[in-house]
Write a structure and sequence with these properties.
The structure holds 2 protein chains of 2 kinds. By secondary structure, chain A is an alpha/beta fold. Chain A has one domain: 3-Layer(aba) Sandwich (Rossmann fold), CATH 3.40.50. Helix content of chain A is 30%, strand content 19%. Chain A has helices at 38-52, 68-71, 90-100, 112-117, 120-129, 173-180, 193-205, 231-237, 287-299, 317-321, 333-336, 340-348, and strands at 60-64, 81-84, 105-111, 133-139, 142-143, 149-150, 184-189, 209-215, 238-240, 242-247, 262-266, 272-277, 303-310. An 8-stranded mixed β-sheet of chain A has the order 2-1-3-4-8-7-13-9, sandwiched between helices. In chain A, strands 10-12-11 form a 3-stranded antiparallel β-sheet. A two-stranded antiparallel sheet of chain A has the order 5-6. In chain A, strand 5 (142-143) and strand 6 (149-150) form a beta hairpin. Chain A is globular. Helix content of chain B is 38%, strand content 18%. Chain B starts with 15 loop residues before the first strand and ends in a 5-residue tail after the last helix. In chain B, helix 7 (222-232) packs across helix 8 (247-260) and helix 16 (517-529) packs across helix 19 (597-610). By secondary structure, chain B is α/β, with parallel strands linked by helices. Chain B folds into 4 domains: 16-207, Pyruvate-ferredoxin oxidoreductase, PFOR, domain III (Pyruvate-ferredoxin Oxidoreductase, domain 3); 220-402, Thiamin diphosphate (ThDP)-binding fold, Pyr/PP domains (Rossmann fold), CATH 3.40.50.970; 421-493, no CATH class; 498-610, Rossmann fold, CATH 3.40.50.920. Chain B is built from 19 helices and 23 strands. In chain B, the strands form 5 sheets. In chain B, strands 11-10-12-13-15-14-21 form a 7-stranded mixed β-sheet, sandwiched between helices. A 6-stranded mixed β-sheet of chain B has the order 3-4-2-5-6-7. A 5-stranded mixed β-sheet of chain B has the order 18-20-19-22-23, sandwiched between helices. The chains are: A alpha/beta, B alpha/beta. Chains A and B meet through strand 2, helix 3, helix 5, helix 11 and helix 12 of A and strand 9, helix 7, strand 11, helix 9 and helix 10 of B. Bound molecules: thiamine diphosphate, iron/sulfur cluster and magnesium ion. The site of magnesium ion has 9 residues of chain A, from helix 4 and strand 5.
Chain lengths: 351, 615
């Protein structure tokens, strides 16, 4: 697949994309997370995706909530402005940022505690509004940063490191996102970069709320036998529905796939998603079908991954609000202030 | 038609021209609001100032509601206290309403059904008019009967108080300009009421006489004015969640933008309004927009402030401009919320966890709601911090006569210290939290400005002057001390206090703010007539300027007059200046109704009496 095609150079980090950036330009500070944390793998996938997509890193705004996962925006895209907001409220802050300047690319990073517990309301409402963003939930089934309490995505029966079994029902963010009308819904696994990088690419090029739930094992608190979010469990129970490439419109890609196994989806920005169907019965345009598929496999204990649903013709919040093309933060005083004469007119209507 | 019977004779009926209080007692949802407003506006059109106030329940239909109109040729727009003429249209509240009328006053009521003698008072003039009977015999449609009953009493009041019928009819014509079908029956009902009163009701001692005391003033409610201030001040993002008494502010902003902020070329909008899922999301949206360089605001009330607190604190530490218009009400829960108070001062001044201090502005009327909403947007950008406009229900939801809204063509938005691409390109040193010129305000950059310079990671407090992650104690302390310097800078940027010296030398002083202003001014006048001269100072912002301290130091006693239980402004004064609390004498009104001049006069006189002064 295109994204893993090793550059011919000896130092892979020095390969340049069409803008002349190396992968290093997409990196950030050195991570302070536990060695082996799934979140770091996701950061690497994000670096790779943006580099591959030839997006100038400073044109991205990266926002997060609070948690180990939410710390990661400091560890990628150094030249981009980042905002570590408060616990569970990244979606609203991102919404505001997006309203202020629609010309940037918005990346929201969150955790399962951040999005499924304290922030469930904001997760839902940002999706309802169709905020144009890539929203990545780094899902480990626990609160990593506060040392291992169960989050709302923990499966019943999964056992904490301290030996306590979870009895509460789980929230499945993918199922919820489908229900809430998200126009792009995918699930990845931190341990499967081959699948994850193109999912991130596709989400970035999607116009609307693109949700990716990424199973991301916490090696400190939730990677033991008995956990349903461990590397071993997910590897054994992963049910991938498709593999995909993102094909930039300007690059002619000449990969041959047998008809019937490949679907091409035109994206809003002119790129194509090329889906290699691993399951013949899977149609990513069918929201209800996706929900059924998800639930059937969930019932069997399988974790469905891949692009579950996409609406390539989706529109975002700005379309609904009918805002001008010029970013609101660039509008001049002359464009904003109606002036003294208009005010005089208003005054005289109030006498 | 039956002739009215119910007139008992009081000792000395009140007599007044252009100086009295009329109160309407109605049932919510009966259509009385627009008739009552018509009454107030007609008097305004006669050049006589009026100060009307709604006192309404938090439901849509069925509960009692009152509309009190202060008529004052002298221009007192606050509540005076007491009632000279009660228009008692609600049998449910009859007992309280009749009890409220001043001795010698008047009560106008619907005499269709006879009232027991025990329901009357002999020390006031009772004026009965069979409104229901007239309506029932004139109109068949029940809805019309109800609506025209209101117009009918407006016509009757016009006859009783000698209000110019021409003024009322002009107003009705303006109101039904686009619905001429409704014009005629309304005028008919008005005239019917007028003629009946003229022919059947006794003359009374209260009257309105044409004057020219209104001048070029306008009549507008504070929420609309504040919304216009946000339009003029350049706000492009508004996020809000409905809550009385602030909702009409966001709705007005949207309406005005719809007229004034459409890009002529594309027809698209130069603004974004989001009705969020709650106040946490509202303030989150405002924070994100402010971080990204758009002027953003929210309008809310006390419960909303509680929910917003965490993000307000983040914005204080992360130094994000945001404007919060808090329309204060009684709290918590429902019921008192549709009453007015000034009880969010402490909650807003110190909103959030950790050491925080926020800038508050106190508008006195719609004119200042406009002015302060616009200047809050400037101050927020200049100071890179949350700025609160502390309105309240009394100002926000009542139409108030005030100076015309003012905008100078030479006004320029102050966008504050935002480092440009050119500055970064030229190699200007950028430390996000670095105080380069001693005012405590650092430079900021907006996302997307420069490919390699000026980006930073925004977080709460764990950072050094260059926004690098740091948990060192020294870095934390330096940052916190800089934030205090910034707060001191705010002192000189916020609107200064407005002094009003007594005509006679005195050491007595009073400090007041916001919606207390008109009642305070009237109280001071009447105290001076009673021999108690007092200098007064209206504070318009927190932090307080040095002039406030000087006023306190040069006076004694110093009263602090406010509309809350806990003397919150007094607490802020004590805290900001490190004062001995005993220097400040609280005068507190907090029953949910707007403070009255009589209340203030009573409190000051009681103090004087206790101090052994002749009053
Ligand atoms: C209002 C609030 N409550 C509680 C916390 C404490 N807290 C910090 S991170 C966290 C949980 C994070 O869990 P998750 O989002 O799953 O992130 P992870 O660390 O697992 O990546 C909590 C409860 C907080 N920061 N703010
Ligand atoms: S505690 Fe868990 S989630 Fe946090 S850094 Fe360590 S492994 Fe990652
Ligand atoms: Mg987690």
């Amino acid at each position: 697949m295109t994204w893993i095609a090793k550059p011919r150079l000896h130092h892979p980090t020095l390969a340049r994309n069409s803008l002349g950036y190396t992968r290093r330009d997409y990196e950030g500070k050195v991570s302070t997370l536990c060695a082996g944390c799934g979140h770091d793998s996701i950061s690497a996938a994000i670096v790779q995706a943006f580099w591959l997509m030839d997006i100038a890193p400073h044109r991205v705004a990266k926002l997060s909530g609070i948690g180990c996962s939410s710390k990661t925006p400091d560890y990628f895209l150094g030249p981009a402005h980042g905002f570590n907001t408060v616990h569970g409220r990244m979606p609203s802050v991102l919404t505001g940022a997006n309203l202020a300047n629609r010309s940037l690319i918005y990346l929201g990073v969150s955790g399962d505690g951040d999005s499924a517990s304290i922030g469930l309301g904001q997760f839902a409402h940002a999706i309802r509004r169709g905020v144009d963003m890539t929203y990545i939930v780094e899902n480990n089934g626990v609160y990593g940063l506060t040392k291992g309490q169960f989050s709302a995505t923990a499966d019943p029966g999964s056992v904490s490191k301290k030996g306590v079994a979870n009895t509460d029902g789980p929230l499945d963010l993918v199922g919820l996102a489908l229900l809430l009308g998200a126009s792009f819904v995918a699930r990845g696994f931190a341990g499967d970069k081959a699948q994850l990088v193109p999912l991130v690419q596709a989400a970035i090029s999607h116009k609307g709320s693109a949700i990716i739930d990424v199973i991301s094992p916490c090696i400190a608190f939730n990677n033991h036998a008995g956990s349903t979010k461990s590397y071993d469990y997910v590897r054994e129970h992963n049910e991938a529905v498709n593999q995909l490439d993102l094909v930039p419109s300007r690059n002619e890609i000449t990969v041959d796939y047998a008809a019937g196994e490949t679907v091409e989806l035109a994206q809003h920005d002119g790129t194509f998603l090329r889906l290699h169907k691993l399951r013949e019965d899977y149609d990513p345009h069918d929201r209800i079908g996706a929900m059924n598929y998800l639930h059937e496999h969930q019932a069997r204990g399988e974790v469905v991954t891949g692009l579950l649903y996409v609406d390539p013709a989706a529109q975002d919040l700005h379309a609904g609000l009918e805002t001008v093309e010029t970013p609101l933060n660039l509008l001049s005083e002359a464009e904003l202030c109606p002036g003294a004469a208009v005010l005089e007119h208003i005054n005289s209507s109030l006498r | 038609m039956p002739v009215t019977d119910a007139r008992t004779v009081p000792a000395a009926p009140l007599e007044a021209v252009n100086d009295f209080v009329v109160k309407f007692a109605n049932v919510n949802g009966s259509g009385s609001a627009s008739a009552n407003e018509l009454f107030a506006r007609a008097i305004l059109r006669m050049g006589v100032p009026v100060g009307p106030r709604n006192i309404f329940p938090s439901n849509i239909q069925g509960l009692p509601t009152w509309y009190e109109v202060r008529i004052s040729g002298a221009g007192h727009l606050g509540r005076r206290g007491g009632v000279d003429l009660m228009v008692a249209m609600n049998p449910q509240t009859w007992d309280d309403d009749i009890a409220e009328v001043d001795v010698g006053g008047y009560l106008f009521y619907d005499s269709t059904r006879p009232l027991a003698a025990t329901k009357m008072r002999s020390d006031i003039t009772m004026i009965g008019m069979p409104l229901t009977e007239i309506c029932n015999s004139t109109w068949a449609d029940p809805r019309q009967r109800q609506l025209f009953k209101n117009i009918l009493y407006v016509g009757a009041l016009a006859a009783l108080l000698r209000i110019d019928m021409g003024a009322i009819e002009t107003l009705i014509a303006e109101q039904y300009k686009s619905k001429p079908r409704l014009l005629e029956p309304n005028v008919q009902a008005l005239r019917m009421g007028y003629v009946y009163a003229r022919d059947h009701l006794p003359a009374i001692g209260l009257s309105v006489r044409r004057s020219n005391a209104v001048g070029d003033r306008i009549f507008i409610d504070g929420n609309r004015a504040a919304a216009l201030g946000c339009v003029y001040g350049g706000a492009t993002v508004c996020a809000w969640y409905p809550i009385t008494p602030s909702s009409s502010l966001a709705e007005s902003f949207q309406n005005y933008c719809h007229k004034l902020r459409i890009d002529p070329a594309s027809g698209r909008r130069r603004y974004a309004v989001v009705q969020a899922e709650d106040e946490i999301a509202s303030i989150g949206i405002v924070a994100g927009a402010g971080w990204n360089g758009a002027r953003a605001f929210t309008a809310t009330s006390g419960p909303g402030i509680s929910l917003m607190s965490e993000i307000i604190g983040l914005a204080y530490f992360a130094e994000i401009p945001m404007t919060i218009i808090d329309v204060q009400r009684g709290g918590p829960s429902t019921g008192m919320p549709t009453r007015t108070q000034q009880a969010d001062l402490v909650a807003c001044a110190y909103a959030s966890h950790g050491d925080t201090r926020h800038v508050l502005l106190f508008p006195e009327d719609p004119h200042e709601c406009f002015e302060f909403a616009a200047s809050a947007l400037d101050l927020a950008d200049r100071l890179q911090t949350p700025v609160f406009v502390m309105s309240d229900l009394d100002i926000a939801m009542n139409q108030r006569l005030c100076a015309p809204l003012a905008w100078s063509e030479t006004n320029r938005y102050d966008r504050g210290k935002v480092m440009s691409f050119e500055q970064l390109e030229a190699g200007t040193d950028f430390g996000r939290y670095k105080d380069v010129d001693g005012d405590g305000i650092p430079w900021r950059t907006l996302p997307g400005t420069h490919p390699t310079r000026g980006s930073y990671f925004t977080r709460g407090t764990s950072r050094d002057a260059y926004a690098r992650y740091s948990e060192r104690g020294r870095d934390y302390v330096d940052n916190m001390e800089r934030l205090l310097r910034k707060f001191d800078t705010a002192r000189s940027l916020v609107p200064p206090p407005v002094p009003n010296a007594s005509h006679r030398p005195t050491t007595w002083g009073a400090i007041y703010f916001g919606s207390t202003a008109p009642a305070m001014r009237e109280a001071v006048e009447s105290l001076e007539q009673a021999g108690l001269a007092m200098d007064i100072l209206r504070v318009r912002a927190f932090p307080f300027s040095g002039a406030v301290r000087e006023f306190i130091e040069s006076h004694g006693p110093v009263f602090v007059v406010e509309q809350n239980r806990d003397a919150q402004l007094r607490s802020l004064l004590v805290d900001d200046f490190g004062l001995d609390p005993a220097r400040l004498v609280p005068i507190l009104h907090f029953d949910g109704t707007p403070i009255t001049a009589r209340f203030i006069v009573g409190a000051v006189k009681a103090y004087a009496h206790e101090a052994g002064m002749p009053t």
